[in-house]
């Protein structure tokens, strides 16, 4: 009953734990979604800021232009006022000049009216844009407030989960204490059973002596008369441990280390190539910062952004293969199980290349259809399309041969041993083909970049991106050449090392026999090591049990820490990938900022020169223009200030330019502080959940071990009871046999006594008859 209740409690706790784990996953997903939403809101805010800056610059230029036109109109009006009294005096002589002045005045009035209307329209547009910006800002503030409320709710849910975890931990600790008490009682019972079994064994010792003598005699007969030669059959010989060749293992590990270094260089070059290709799509033939790129290029960019998840596993698979080759193992194709993992990672990367190949070809066709594309550039694009197809085909060919080499470690009949050499030779040829394709791609892309740099519309961003792509293609070419030459130099050693195996054996029969052989090798090495070590003093049984509990708890905590370290390493790798991506984005943004600063400086120079011309005209008509300047100064609005969470926005006249850099720094600092705060909260929640999960996992393992020990003790009790009953049965049978033998002996003795009595009677009768005969003879 108690065990059933405990099982019911454990089932309930397991269900609650699964529910809490699911809720934790939902909360994590919600936090990730909120982070994505905040990033999208940041992008929207950046776009709105850019549009507002453009409108402010246009407004400043228009106000400056309007001031110039107003001054010009004032000058014309002054000239007209001076010419009117002269015209009255010389009415007859100046009729023609007055007509001309009136025509000019009407033309100027019409021009002035058009400028005034245009100024009003621009003022209306600026006011509407300002209102729209304020509306968007209010929406973003409300959305930020809702997100903060949701984050607080999520934190409350996390706190509730922590309280539930603590309650479950207390319950499990109580159950653990109860189980420990029960286990101690069971151990006492087991000790009593052992004492009883020892007594029974002492009773059976006499019977075993006779059987041991017969067993030794039979074993000597078997060893002398029935020998077994395991090298006669290949199935059995494959299980024999071969001679240890340390030089061969060190050579294979050195070769694997060199291959790992080459693969790491190749992976880095592939990552750079795909990343810079994605950046090039964003800026050519259409710059995404100015206009929207085509849906095809958007999809292609999205796929290229996922390149790290397909390229990084190649390095990891090669690292696992390198770590599996140690000094103590036997390295042949049947034992390199990790080669199958590397082959699977290569297959996933080839699927990625097949997925992006149609988009890449269509993207090159779209560049050819662009108005900026010349005939020479179109020819280079067609050559690159063919090169990309060849590159995918070479990778598929290479994956086919590597998959064949991985078959002997998984399927014994997948590849015959006679074909190993040809497959390795084809791998070397495929690597040389890959090197040739990369040389063609480097050559054609260099020509394409040279033609694009000569175009009048080529931007600095495009030139920089093309240079980065060329450097990554050059690194790919060098890496492919190094791998091809390295494999060609060692292919003969690979083919010769395939015969390394058990003595007088043709090959390993199957991966299972190779695995068994490795296990036997480890056991033999451990046995030889144990023979060399001096015997240590034995530990008492009670102390060993106590040490076992401590060891189990330490191993569980070590497993939990190892799992946490593995998770942190995965997070670090993801953060490194994101760091590389954002570093490239920062470089492009820096180039863009330099161009924008240069453009603003040019505009400021042009405005300063325009102001110099205006001052020269003011000196000519200083008295009449003073009143106009005062009226225009009164008409200019005072600077307005708007305070908010994202900084202080200030709009002034054309004489006071807005401090763009300080405002951008305020916005950047605010959002960076907010992001740091949210990430710290997220990391704290992750660490707490991992800590609680590790504690619950350790407690569940301890409970499972206690249950296992309980079951083992019950099984031992059952076995001891069965052995006791068996011994009792044997004793009863031996007693019966002895009683039967005694009864038979008593019967035999009775029969012998009867025969003796009969013989005595016969002897007596013979004596009597002999006496009677002697008396008769005497009487005669």
UniProtKB/TrEMBL annotation:
InterPro entries xref list: PPP1R21, PPP1R21_C, PPP1R21_N, PPP1R21_six_helix
Coiled coil: 3-72, 137-196, 558-592, 696-730
Origin organism lineage: Eukaryota, Metazoa, Chordata, Craniata, Vertebrata
Keyword Coiled coil: yes
GO cellular component, one term: early endosome
Full protein name: Protein phosphatase 1 regulatory subunit 21
Record's keyword annotation contains RNA-binding: yes
Location(s) in or outside the cell: Early endosome
Domain Protein phosphatase 1 regulatory subunit 21 N-terminal: 11-112
Compositionally biased residues, Low complexity: 95-104
PANTHER family membership: PROTEIN PHOSPHATASE 1 REGULATORY SUBUNIT 21 (PTHR21448:SF0), SMOOTH MUSCLE MYOSIN HEAVY CHAIN-RELATED (PTHR21448)
Pfam families with a match to the protein in the record: KLRAQ (PF10205), PPP1R21_C (PF21636), PPP1R21_helical (PF10212)
Signal peptide positions (record): none
Keyword line: Coiled coil, Endosome, RNA-binding
Species for this entry: Odobenus rosmarus divergens (Pacific walrus)
MF annotations from Gene Ontology: RNA binding
Region Disordered: start-end pairs: 84-104, 756-780
SMART domains with a match to the protein in the record: KLRAQ
């Amino acid at each position: 009953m108690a065990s059933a209740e405990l099982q019911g409690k454990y089932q309930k706790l397991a269900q609650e734990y699964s529910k809490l784990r699911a809720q934790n996953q939902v909360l994590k997903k919600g936090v990730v979604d909120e982070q994505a939403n905040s990033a999208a809101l940041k992008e929207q805010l950046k776009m709105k800021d850019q549009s507002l800056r453009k409108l402010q610059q246009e407004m400043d230029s228009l106000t400056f232009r309007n001031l110039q036109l107003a001054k010009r109109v004032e000058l014309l009006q002054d000239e007209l006022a001076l010419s009117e009294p002269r015209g009255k005096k010389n009415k007859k002589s100046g009729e023609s000049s007055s007509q001309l002045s009136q025509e000019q005045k009407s033309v100027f009035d019409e021009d002035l009216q058009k400028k005034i209307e245009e100024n009003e329209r621009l003022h209306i547009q600026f006011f509407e844009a300002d209102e729209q910006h304020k509306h968007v800002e209010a929406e973003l503030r409300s959305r930020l407030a809702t997100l903060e409320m949701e984050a607080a709710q999520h934190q409350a849910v996390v706190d509730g989960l922590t309280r539930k975890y603590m309650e479950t931990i207390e319950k499990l600790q109580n159950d653990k204490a109860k189980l420990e008490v029960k286990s101690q009682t069971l151990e006492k019972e087991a000790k009593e059973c052992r004492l009883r079994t020892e007594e029974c064994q002492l009773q059976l010792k006499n019977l075993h002596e006779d059987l041991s003598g017969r067993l030794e005699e039979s074993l000597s007969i078997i060893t002398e008369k029935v020998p077994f030669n395991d090298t006669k059959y290949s199935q059995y010989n494959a299980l024999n441990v071969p001679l240890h060749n340390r030089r061969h293992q060190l050579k294979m590990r050195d070769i694997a280390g060199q291959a790992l270094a080459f693969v790491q260089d190749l992976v880095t070059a592939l990552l750079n190539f795909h990343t810079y290709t994605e950046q090039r799509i964003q800026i050519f033939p259409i710059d995404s910062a100015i206009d929207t790129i085509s849906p095809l290029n958007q999809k292609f960019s999205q796929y290229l952004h996922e390149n790290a998840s397909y390229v990084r596993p190649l390095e990891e698979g090669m690292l696992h293969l390198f770590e599996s080759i140690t000094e103590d193992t036997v390295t042949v194709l049947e034992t390199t199980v990790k080669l199958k993992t590397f082959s699977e990672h290569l297959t996933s990367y080839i699927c990625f290349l097949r997925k992006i190949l149609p988009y890449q070809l269509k993207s090159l066709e779209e560049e050819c259809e662009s108005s900026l594309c010349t005939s020479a550039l179109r020819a280079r694009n067609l050559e690159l399309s063919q090169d990309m197809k060849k590159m995918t085909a070479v990778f598929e060919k290479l994956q086919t041969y590597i998959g064949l080499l991985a078959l002997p470690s998984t399927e014994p009949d997948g590849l015959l041993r006679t074909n190993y050499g040809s497959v390795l030779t084809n791998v070397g040829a495929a690597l040389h083909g890959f090197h040739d394709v990369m040389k063609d791609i480097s050559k054609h892309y260099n020509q394409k970049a040279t033609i694009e740099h000569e175009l009048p519309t080529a931007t600095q961003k495009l030139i920089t991106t093309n240079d980065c792509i060329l450097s990554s293609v050059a690194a790919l070419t060098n890496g492919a050449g190094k791998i091809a030459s390295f494999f060609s130099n060692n292919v003969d050693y690979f083919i010769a090392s395939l015969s390394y195996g058990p003595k007088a054996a043709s090959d390993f029969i199957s991966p299972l026999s190779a695995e068994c052989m490795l296990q036997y090798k480890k056991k033999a090495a451990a046995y030889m090591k144990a023979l060399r070590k001096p015997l240590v003093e034995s530990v008492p049984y009670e102390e060993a049990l106590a040490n076992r509990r401590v060891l189990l708890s330490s191993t569980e905590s070590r497993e939990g820490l190892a799992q946490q370290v593995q998770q942190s390493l995965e997070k670090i790798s993801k953060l490194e990938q994101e760091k590389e991506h954002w570093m490239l984005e920062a470089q492009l943004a820096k180039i863009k900022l330099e161009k924008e600063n240069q453009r603003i400086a040019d505009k400021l120079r042009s405005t300063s020169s325009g102001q110099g011309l205006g001052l020269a005209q003011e000196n000519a008509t200083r008295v009449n223009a003073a009143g106009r300047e005062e009226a225009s100064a009164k008409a200019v609005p005072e600077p307005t200030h708007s305070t908010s969470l994202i900084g202080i926005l200030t709009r002034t006249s054309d004489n006071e330019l807005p401090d763009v850099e300080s405002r951008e720094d305020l916005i950047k600092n605010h959002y960076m502080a907010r992001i740091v705060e949210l990430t710290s909260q997220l990391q704290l929640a992750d660490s707490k959940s991992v800590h609680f999960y590790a504690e619950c996992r350790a407690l569940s393992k301890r409970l499972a071990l206690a249950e296992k020990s309980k079951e083992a003790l019950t099984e031992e009790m059952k076995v001891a009871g069965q052995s006791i009953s068996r011994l009792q049965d044997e004793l009863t049978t031996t007693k019966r046999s002895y009683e039967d033998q005694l009864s038979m002996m008593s019967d035999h003795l009775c029969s012998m006594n009867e025969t003796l009595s009969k013989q005595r009677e016969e002897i007596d009768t013979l004596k009597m008859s002999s006496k009677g005969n002697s008396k008769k003879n005497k009487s005669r």
